[in-house]
Amino acid sequence: MLTVAEARSRILAAFSPLGSELVGLENALGRVLAAPVIARLTQPPRAVSAMDGYALRSADVLDRGIGADGVSLKVAFEIAAGHPPARPLAPGEAARIFTGAMLPDGADSIVIQENSRPGASGTIHLTDARFRVGQHVRAGGLDFTAGDLGLAAGRCLTARDIGFAAAMNWPWLTVVRRPRLALLSTGDELVNPGEQLAPGKIMASNGFAIAALLRASGADVINLGNAPDDETQLAAMIATARGADLLVTIGGASVGDHDLVQRVLKSQGVALDFWKIAMRPGKPVMFGQLGDLRVIGLPGNPTSALVTSILFVRPAIARMLGQDTAEQLDQAVLGRDLPANDQRQDYLRATLERDAEGHEVATPFQLQDSSMISLLARADALVIRAPHAPAAKAGDRVQMIRLGGSALSI
Q1: Residue 342, number of CB atoms within 10 A of its CB
Q2: Which of 117, 179, 205, 337 is the most buried (most CB within 10 A)?
Q3: How confident is the model at residue 253 (pLDDT cuts 50, 70, 90)?
Q4: How many other CB atoms sit within 10 Å of the CB of residue 157?
């Protein structure tokens, strides 16, 4: 059997980044940039006011000094945001100005309206003795300058990034094409949620969970549905996956009498790379290529299917998107004793909490049966136990894969 690392390496070697496409900003959330976003303008284009108040020449204040009687300046004109100043500011003048409005030529400071009071004959009386040159002014280019690198290629776009791109005057962005994944569940026992559950049947949960995981990872998923244990029908449904970047099958990847996926794929000429990995849960994972179509066959047990999707399918999607495929591993303190491990690498469902010293403590559930999806729903992490690992004590450091709690998490 292959190690997890060997299987992962072989799968990743079979994929490469996909081509690019243009999308509007409104459709860019979660997409991966295929080209850098360079600022097309300077923001702000010139000095603007950060507050409502009065724009003035600092020399007029510094020459006179704001003492007990303050300084009086003539209010020459008004500047609102979005409108250019009427003219430069002359010595002895101030301009009424509002937040975001451009400073007139000659002005270099703002006195906020709270530190002033109206004077006689259209003047303003300034009373703040803590005046500083340049106060409340946002310099031109404070945010970014034309030609700056705003967003690098390979970045997965957030709402913040989309706002930044809009500010840099980009209505369209060049992003990596989403991988097209065909998903096929197999087994006579499968019944969709909401349907009548006859004796011997089970709810088809895997397809929904894995489709959600793959979409959250950046793929477009074509769910082909549930295939019965019939070679002819299975072959026909596999044929509909042609044109996808990857076919993911669930169940039937082993070599039992009713495990037909591998048999059907072989009959169609699949080049099978491997079909067993030294791991638990998820030993019967299959990988091969059928013409131009790559195929990853996942085990049918719910936990096994999701864990192997995390370890092997998500990295394949990341490779196609041109993203980093390095494993995201964290460390924690072990919350209970564990026995020595055998020849398979374990991924133990565990909860996370903080101890009195603030350390994260990962406590694996006592039961780790791969059919129990309820435990995976309650888990916060997968604790990794290497093959032939010696017995571990509570308090030892362990590696883990964090599952997260947001809708886009594992």
Answers
A1: 13
A2: 179
A3: low
A4: 21
- Other CB atoms within 10 Å distance of the CB of residue 318: 21
Half-sphere exposure of 202 (CA within 13 A, CB side): 15
User: Among residues 95, 114, 112, 113, which one has the least CA distance to residue 104?
Assistant: 95
**Which helix or strand (DSSP H or E) is residue 362 part of?**
strand 360-364
Tell which wins on pLDDT, 21 or 373.
21
Q: Which CATH superfamily is domain 4-17+178-320 in?
A: MoaB/Mog-like domain (3.40.980.10)
What's the first-to-final CA gap in the chain, in angstroms?
Answer: 26
Q: For 12-44, how does the pLDDT look when each residue is reduced to its tens digit (9 = 90+)?
A: 999 999 999 999 999 999 999 999 999 999 999
The highest-level CATH class for domain 330-402 is: mainly beta
The proportion of the chain whose per-residue pLDDT surpasses 70, expressed as a percent, equals 95
Predicted pLDDT of residue 318: 96
Residue 365 in contact with residue 24, Cβ under 8 Å?
no
CATH 2.60.120.200 fits 48-138, yes or no: no
Separation of alpha carbons 57 and 244, rounded Å: 66
- Peptide bond between residue 44 and the one before it cis (omega within 30 degrees of 0): yes
- Topology of the domain comprising 20-43+143-176: Molybdopterin biosynthesis moea protein, domain 2 (3.90.105)
**Measured distance CA(150)–CA(172) in Å, rounded:** 14
CA dist 54 → 96, 405, 408 (Å):
5, 49, 48
Query: How far is Cα 402 from Cα 410, in angstroms, rounded to an integer?
Result: 8
pLDDT value at 68 more than 80: no
